[in-house]
Amino acid sequence: MVIRLKGTTGLLVAVVVVALLLVEFPAYRLFFGVSVLIGLVIAGGLTWWYRTHPIKDVEVENKKPLGL
């Protein structure tokens, strides 16, 4: 038996599962918090890097990869 969840339904199920895990298992809260913190630090670092070092058109080799 396969249950296919796509789009908004799949996202809603994922959010509910994570919420239930956070409520049920205290160790999961710590893991989730550390993971979110690491993700935010990496996202912030990448955002800062690309704001201070913008990509120029001459640095992009293949501007039309599909030939369209």
Briefly say what this structure is.
The protein is mainly α and 68 residues long. The chain is built from two helices and no strands. 66% of the residues lie in helices and 0% in strands.
Description of the molecule:
With 68 residues, the protein is mostly helical. The chain has a domain of 32 residues. Helices cover 66% and strands 0% of the residues. The protein contains two helices and no strands. Helix 1 packs across helix 2. The radius of gyration is 20 Å and the shape is flat.
Number of helical stretches of at least 4 residues? 2
Distance between the termini: 42 Å
Q: How many DSSP-defined strands?
A: 0
Return residue spans where pLDDT drops below 50 for at least 5 consecutive residues. none
Order of H and E elements: HH
Mean pLDDT: 87
The structure class reads: mainly alpha
For this entry, give a set of tags.
68 residues; mainly alpha; 66% helix; flat
Give the helices and strands, then pairings:
Elements: H1 7-24, H2 26-52
